[in-house]
Here is the input.
Amino acid sequence: MVKAMPEHNENRPTLKTIAEITGLSLSTVSLSLRDGSNLKQTTRDKVAQAAAQIGYVPNRAGVRLRTGRTNVLALVLSTDVKNLDFTRILIKGIGAQIHGSKFHLNVVPEFDHSDPIEAVKYILDNRSADGVILTHTSARDPRVQLLIDANFPFVSHGRTEFYSEHPYHDFNAEKFVELAVNRLVAKGRKHLLLAAVDNGTTNFANTVNGFNRAVANAGVIGDVVENSELLVDTEDTRAFGRQLGTQISSTDKNTHSGIDAVICNNELTAIAIIGALQESALQIGQHYDLICKQTTDILPLLYPKLDTVAEDLFSTGQELAELLINCIDGSPVKDLQTLHAPIPQWRDGLVSQET
Here is the structure.
Protein backbone atom coordinates (compact mmCIF):
# COMPACT_ATOMS: atom_id res chain seq x y z
CA MET A 1 0.00 0.00 0.00
CA VAL A 2 1.32 3.45 -0.93
CA LYS A 3 1.56 5.89 1.97
CA ALA A 4 0.49 9.53 1.78
CA MET A 5 3.18 11.94 0.69
CA PRO A 6 5.02 13.46 3.68
CA GLU A 7 3.69 16.95 4.38
CA HIS A 8 7.14 18.39 5.09
CA ASN A 9 8.37 17.78 1.55
CA GLU A 10 7.53 20.93 -0.38
CA ASN A 11 10.36 20.64 -2.90
CA ARG A 12 10.42 18.84 -6.22
CA PRO A 13 9.71 15.10 -5.73
CA THR A 14 12.82 12.93 -5.79
CA LEU A 15 13.71 9.26 -5.61
CA LYS A 16 14.05 9.72 -1.85
CA THR A 17 10.47 10.98 -1.72
CA ILE A 18 9.22 7.83 -3.46
CA ALA A 19 11.33 5.68 -1.14
CA GLU A 20 9.73 7.36 1.90
CA ILE A 21 6.23 6.85 0.51
CA THR A 22 6.68 3.22 -0.48
CA GLY A 23 8.95 2.10 2.33
CA LEU A 24 11.37 0.69 -0.23
CA SER A 25 15.09 1.30 -0.39
CA LEU A 26 16.46 4.09 -2.56
CA SER A 27 18.32 1.58 -4.73
CA THR A 28 15.13 -0.44 -5.32
CA VAL A 29 13.19 2.67 -6.34
CA SER A 30 15.98 3.75 -8.67
CA LEU A 31 16.20 0.30 -10.29
CA SER A 32 12.42 0.10 -10.72
CA LEU A 33 12.25 3.45 -12.53
CA ARG A 34 15.24 2.66 -14.76
CA ASP A 35 14.06 -0.77 -15.86
CA GLY A 36 13.27 -3.04 -12.95
CA SER A 37 12.75 -6.15 -15.05
CA ASN A 38 14.35 -8.20 -12.25
CA LEU A 39 11.94 -6.86 -9.62
CA LYS A 40 8.56 -8.26 -8.70
CA GLN A 41 5.66 -6.73 -10.61
CA THR A 42 4.01 -5.71 -7.32
CA THR A 43 7.13 -3.72 -6.41
CA ARG A 44 7.25 -2.03 -9.79
CA ASP A 45 3.54 -1.19 -9.61
CA LYS A 46 4.00 0.30 -6.11
CA VAL A 47 6.84 2.54 -7.30
CA ALA A 48 4.98 3.59 -10.47
CA GLN A 49 1.85 4.43 -8.44
CA ALA A 50 3.83 6.56 -6.00
CA ALA A 51 5.69 8.35 -8.79
CA ALA A 52 2.41 9.17 -10.55
CA GLN A 53 0.81 10.28 -7.28
CA ILE A 54 3.47 12.88 -6.53
CA GLY A 55 4.15 13.87 -10.16
CA TYR A 56 7.73 12.65 -10.15
CA VAL A 57 9.72 13.60 -13.26
CA PRO A 58 13.29 12.28 -13.66
CA ASN A 59 16.02 14.89 -13.62
CA ARG A 60 17.42 14.54 -17.13
CA ALA A 61 20.71 16.11 -16.24
CA GLY A 62 21.16 13.62 -13.42
CA VAL A 63 20.14 10.70 -15.60
CA ARG A 64 22.64 11.77 -18.24
CA LEU A 65 25.45 12.03 -15.71
CA ARG A 66 24.71 8.59 -14.25
CA THR A 67 23.99 6.65 -17.42
CA GLY A 68 25.15 8.71 -20.38
CA ARG A 69 21.54 8.58 -21.62
CA THR A 70 19.15 11.48 -22.13
CA ASN A 71 15.95 9.40 -22.35
CA VAL A 72 15.04 11.61 -25.31
CA LEU A 73 14.05 10.57 -28.84
CA ALA A 74 14.49 13.25 -31.50
CA LEU A 75 12.11 13.49 -34.46
CA VAL A 76 13.84 15.38 -37.27
CA LEU A 77 10.91 16.76 -39.20
CA SER A 78 10.90 18.47 -42.57
CA THR A 79 8.97 21.76 -42.57
CA ASP A 80 8.17 21.21 -46.27
CA VAL A 81 5.38 18.67 -45.70
CA LYS A 82 2.52 18.66 -48.22
CA ASN A 83 0.65 15.72 -46.71
CA LEU A 84 -2.50 16.76 -44.88
CA ASP A 85 -2.14 16.43 -41.09
CA PHE A 86 1.03 14.34 -41.51
CA THR A 87 2.90 15.88 -38.58
CA ARG A 88 0.08 15.72 -36.02
CA ILE A 89 -0.86 12.10 -36.68
CA LEU A 90 2.75 10.87 -36.81
CA ILE A 91 3.64 12.59 -33.52
CA LYS A 92 0.47 11.26 -31.92
CA GLY A 93 1.51 7.72 -32.84
CA ILE A 94 5.04 8.19 -31.50
CA GLY A 95 3.64 9.68 -28.31
CA ALA A 96 1.27 6.76 -27.80
CA GLN A 97 4.14 4.28 -28.17
CA ILE A 98 6.45 5.96 -25.65
CA HIS A 99 3.70 6.87 -23.17
CA GLY A 100 4.54 5.39 -19.79
CA SER A 101 8.12 4.66 -20.81
CA LYS A 102 11.26 6.52 -19.74
CA PHE A 103 11.49 8.25 -23.10
CA HIS A 104 10.40 11.74 -24.09
CA LEU A 105 10.06 13.20 -27.59
CA ASN A 106 11.77 16.29 -28.97
CA VAL A 107 10.77 17.60 -32.41
CA VAL A 108 13.65 19.15 -34.36
CA PRO A 109 12.41 21.10 -37.43
CA GLU A 110 14.58 21.29 -40.54
CA PHE A 111 14.39 24.97 -41.41
CA ASP A 112 17.56 25.33 -43.47
CA HIS A 113 17.08 23.13 -46.54
CA SER A 114 20.39 24.34 -47.95
CA ASP A 115 22.15 22.36 -45.21
CA PRO A 116 20.35 19.00 -44.90
CA ILE A 117 22.57 17.70 -42.09
CA GLU A 118 22.39 20.76 -39.80
CA ALA A 119 19.65 19.41 -37.51
CA VAL A 120 21.21 15.96 -37.20
CA LYS A 121 24.69 17.40 -36.68
CA TYR A 122 23.38 19.52 -33.81
CA ILE A 123 21.94 16.42 -32.10
CA LEU A 124 25.21 14.52 -32.53
CA ASP A 125 27.45 17.39 -31.39
CA ASN A 126 25.38 18.03 -28.28
CA ARG A 127 24.27 14.46 -27.61
CA SER A 128 20.81 15.91 -27.01
CA ALA A 129 19.02 12.60 -27.71
CA ASP A 130 19.56 8.86 -27.45
CA GLY A 131 18.28 8.25 -30.97
CA VAL A 132 16.86 9.94 -34.05
CA ILE A 133 13.78 9.41 -36.22
CA LEU A 134 14.22 10.74 -39.76
CA THR A 135 11.31 11.58 -42.07
CA HIS A 136 11.24 12.17 -45.85
CA THR A 137 14.25 9.97 -46.54
CA SER A 138 16.01 10.14 -49.90
CA ALA A 139 17.94 7.37 -51.67
CA ARG A 140 21.39 8.75 -50.75
CA ASP A 141 20.30 10.77 -47.73
CA PRO A 142 23.30 12.60 -46.21
CA ARG A 143 21.63 12.51 -42.78
CA VAL A 144 21.57 8.72 -42.92
CA GLN A 145 25.23 8.61 -43.94
CA LEU A 146 26.17 10.93 -41.06
CA LEU A 147 24.35 8.78 -38.50
CA ILE A 148 25.79 5.55 -39.87
CA ASP A 149 29.31 7.00 -39.72
CA ALA A 150 28.71 8.16 -36.14
CA ASN A 151 27.30 4.75 -35.16
CA PHE A 152 24.37 6.62 -33.61
CA PRO A 153 20.96 4.94 -33.13
CA PHE A 154 18.36 6.03 -35.67
CA VAL A 155 15.45 4.83 -37.79
CA SER A 156 14.36 6.34 -41.09
CA HIS A 157 10.82 6.69 -42.36
CA GLY A 158 11.69 5.40 -45.80
CA ARG A 159 14.27 3.15 -47.40
CA THR A 160 17.60 4.19 -48.89
CA GLU A 161 20.10 2.79 -51.37
CA PHE A 162 23.05 2.65 -48.99
CA TYR A 163 25.16 -0.49 -48.96
CA SER A 164 25.27 -0.39 -45.15
CA GLU A 165 21.97 -1.65 -43.76
CA HIS A 166 20.12 0.45 -41.21
CA PRO A 167 16.75 0.46 -39.40
CA TYR A 168 13.77 1.74 -41.38
CA HIS A 169 10.00 1.66 -41.62
CA ASP A 170 8.46 2.46 -44.98
CA PHE A 171 5.10 2.51 -46.72
CA ASN A 172 4.99 -0.26 -49.32
CA ALA A 173 4.61 2.07 -52.30
CA GLU A 174 5.08 -0.73 -54.82
CA LYS A 175 2.13 -2.64 -53.38
CA PHE A 176 0.05 0.55 -53.26
CA VAL A 177 0.32 1.17 -57.00
CA GLU A 178 -0.13 -2.52 -57.78
CA LEU A 179 -3.41 -2.53 -55.85
CA ALA A 180 -4.52 0.70 -57.53
CA VAL A 181 -3.65 -0.46 -61.06
CA ASN A 182 -5.39 -3.83 -60.63
CA ARG A 183 -8.47 -2.12 -59.21
CA LEU A 184 -8.70 0.31 -62.13
CA VAL A 185 -8.18 -2.45 -64.69
CA ALA A 186 -10.97 -4.43 -63.01
CA LYS A 187 -13.18 -1.39 -63.59
CA GLY A 188 -12.37 -1.52 -67.30
CA ARG A 189 -9.86 1.31 -67.43
CA LYS A 190 -7.17 1.02 -70.11
CA HIS A 191 -5.05 4.20 -69.98
CA LEU A 192 -3.75 5.14 -66.54
CA LEU A 193 -1.91 8.27 -65.41
CA LEU A 194 0.31 8.43 -62.31
CA ALA A 195 0.15 11.97 -60.90
CA ALA A 196 2.61 11.60 -58.03
CA VAL A 197 4.21 14.42 -56.07
CA ASP A 198 8.00 14.18 -56.32
CA ASN A 199 9.26 15.12 -52.85
CA GLY A 200 12.74 13.77 -53.49
CA THR A 201 12.21 10.67 -51.38
CA THR A 202 12.95 7.04 -52.14
CA ASN A 203 9.23 6.42 -51.70
CA PHE A 204 8.49 8.49 -54.82
CA ALA A 205 10.99 6.49 -56.89
CA ASN A 206 9.47 3.24 -55.59
CA THR A 207 6.01 4.50 -56.52
CA VAL A 208 7.03 5.25 -60.12
CA ASN A 209 8.92 1.97 -60.54
CA GLY A 210 6.04 0.00 -59.05
CA PHE A 211 3.54 1.73 -61.34
CA ASN A 212 5.55 0.95 -64.47
CA ARG A 213 5.79 -2.72 -63.50
CA ALA A 214 2.10 -2.94 -62.60
CA VAL A 215 0.79 -1.47 -65.88
CA ALA A 216 3.17 -3.69 -67.87
CA ASN A 217 1.92 -6.79 -66.03
CA ALA A 218 -1.70 -5.70 -66.53
CA GLY A 219 -1.22 -5.03 -70.26
CA VAL A 220 -2.56 -1.47 -70.15
CA ILE A 221 -1.12 1.92 -71.06
CA GLY A 222 0.56 3.85 -68.25
CA ASP A 223 1.82 7.44 -68.25
CA VAL A 224 3.67 9.33 -65.52
CA VAL A 225 3.55 13.10 -65.00
CA GLU A 226 7.18 13.82 -65.79
CA ASN A 227 7.21 17.54 -64.98
CA SER A 228 6.90 17.55 -61.18
CA GLU A 229 6.58 21.36 -61.22
CA LEU A 230 3.01 20.88 -62.44
CA LEU A 231 2.05 19.43 -59.05
CA VAL A 232 4.01 21.74 -56.74
CA ASP A 233 1.11 23.80 -55.39
CA THR A 234 -2.68 23.75 -55.50
CA GLU A 235 -3.16 26.34 -58.25
CA ASP A 236 -0.63 24.67 -60.56
CA THR A 237 -2.26 21.31 -59.92
CA ARG A 238 -5.73 22.68 -60.73
CA ALA A 239 -4.35 24.12 -63.96
CA PHE A 240 -2.91 20.69 -64.76
CA GLY A 241 -6.29 19.16 -63.93
CA ARG A 242 -8.03 21.45 -66.41
CA GLN A 243 -5.60 20.35 -69.14
CA LEU A 244 -6.20 16.74 -68.15
CA GLY A 245 -9.94 17.35 -68.44
CA THR A 246 -9.51 18.21 -72.09
CA GLN A 247 -7.75 14.91 -72.71
CA ILE A 248 -10.38 12.91 -70.83
CA SER A 249 -13.22 14.65 -72.67
CA SER A 250 -11.70 13.73 -76.04
CA THR A 251 -11.10 10.09 -75.10
CA ASP A 252 -12.39 7.60 -77.64
CA LYS A 253 -14.45 5.21 -75.53
CA ASN A 254 -13.99 2.41 -78.06
CA THR A 255 -10.23 2.59 -78.54
CA HIS A 256 -9.37 4.10 -75.12
CA SER A 257 -6.92 6.37 -76.86
CA GLY A 258 -6.99 8.88 -74.01
CA ILE A 259 -6.48 8.82 -70.24
CA ASP A 260 -9.40 7.35 -68.32
CA ALA A 261 -7.93 6.86 -64.83
CA VAL A 262 -5.59 8.65 -62.42
CA ILE A 263 -3.50 7.47 -59.46
CA CYS A 264 -2.29 10.03 -56.90
CA ASN A 265 0.04 9.63 -53.93
CA ASN A 266 -1.05 12.85 -52.22
CA GLU A 267 -4.49 13.94 -51.01
CA LEU A 268 -4.05 17.63 -51.86
CA THR A 269 -3.10 16.67 -55.41
CA ALA A 270 -6.17 14.47 -55.72
CA ILE A 271 -8.52 17.17 -54.38
CA ALA A 272 -7.12 19.78 -56.78
CA ILE A 273 -7.38 17.45 -59.80
CA ILE A 274 -10.91 16.32 -58.94
CA GLY A 275 -11.99 19.95 -58.47
CA ALA A 276 -10.59 20.94 -61.86
CA LEU A 277 -12.25 17.96 -63.57
CA GLN A 278 -15.56 18.85 -61.94
CA GLU A 279 -15.27 22.30 -63.52
CA SER A 280 -15.18 20.47 -66.85
CA ALA A 281 -18.32 18.53 -65.89
CA LEU A 282 -16.37 15.29 -65.62
CA GLN A 283 -17.54 12.93 -62.90
CA ILE A 284 -15.65 10.19 -61.03
CA GLY A 285 -16.93 6.74 -61.89
CA GLN A 286 -18.46 7.93 -65.13
CA HIS A 287 -15.91 9.77 -67.24
CA TYR A 288 -12.86 8.60 -65.30
CA ASP A 289 -11.76 6.88 -62.09
CA LEU A 290 -9.21 8.08 -59.55
CA ILE A 291 -7.45 6.27 -56.71
CA CYS A 292 -5.38 8.11 -54.12
CA LYS A 293 -3.14 7.20 -51.23
CA GLN A 294 -5.11 8.13 -48.09
CA THR A 295 -3.56 9.35 -44.83
CA THR A 296 -6.53 11.27 -43.33
CA ASP A 297 -10.33 11.12 -43.42
CA ILE A 298 -10.69 14.13 -45.72
CA LEU A 299 -11.08 12.26 -49.04
CA PRO A 300 -13.93 9.90 -48.01
CA LEU A 301 -15.59 12.89 -46.33
CA LEU A 302 -15.55 14.92 -49.55
CA TYR A 303 -16.00 12.01 -51.98
CA PRO A 304 -17.71 9.08 -50.20
CA LYS A 305 -17.50 6.78 -53.25
CA LEU A 306 -13.84 7.47 -54.04
CA ASP A 307 -11.51 4.46 -53.86
CA THR A 308 -8.36 4.97 -51.79
CA VAL A 309 -5.42 2.96 -50.46
CA ALA A 310 -4.68 3.97 -46.90
CA GLU A 311 -1.52 4.40 -44.85
CA ASP A 312 -2.14 4.44 -41.09
CA LEU A 313 0.21 7.24 -40.00
CA PHE A 314 -0.65 6.66 -36.34
CA SER A 315 0.63 3.08 -36.46
CA THR A 316 3.58 4.31 -38.53
CA GLY A 317 4.52 6.62 -35.67
CA GLN A 318 4.19 3.77 -33.20
CA GLU A 319 6.35 1.49 -35.33
CA LEU A 320 9.08 4.11 -35.78
CA ALA A 321 9.27 4.70 -32.02
CA GLU A 322 9.38 0.99 -31.25
CA LEU A 323 12.09 0.34 -33.83
CA LEU A 324 14.22 3.21 -32.52
CA ILE A 325 13.96 2.07 -28.90
CA ASN A 326 14.90 -1.46 -29.97
CA CYS A 327 17.83 -0.01 -31.92
CA ILE A 328 19.00 1.89 -28.84
CA ASP A 329 18.75 -1.35 -26.86
CA GLY A 330 21.00 -3.10 -29.38
CA SER A 331 18.64 -5.22 -31.47
CA PRO A 332 20.11 -6.53 -34.76
CA VAL A 333 19.49 -4.33 -37.80
CA LYS A 334 17.84 -7.21 -39.68
CA ASP A 335 15.06 -7.14 -37.07
CA LEU A 336 14.56 -3.38 -37.46
CA GLN A 337 13.44 -3.13 -41.11
CA THR A 338 9.69 -3.18 -41.68
CA LEU A 339 7.15 -2.24 -44.35
CA HIS A 340 3.71 -0.77 -43.77
CA ALA A 341 1.09 -2.77 -45.66
CA PRO A 342 -1.29 -0.60 -47.76
CA ILE A 343 -4.96 -0.85 -46.78
CA PRO A 344 -7.35 -0.97 -49.78
CA GLN A 345 -10.53 1.05 -49.23
CA TRP A 346 -12.83 0.07 -52.08
CA ARG A 347 -16.09 1.90 -51.53
CA ASP A 348 -18.61 0.13 -53.74
CA GLY A 349 -19.09 -2.87 -51.49
CA LEU A 350 -16.39 -4.95 -53.13
CA VAL A 351 -13.67 -6.27 -50.85
CA SER A 352 -10.12 -6.56 -52.17
CA GLN A 353 -8.70 -10.08 -52.12
CA GLU A 354 -5.15 -8.73 -52.28
CA THR A 355 -3.02 -8.12 -49.21
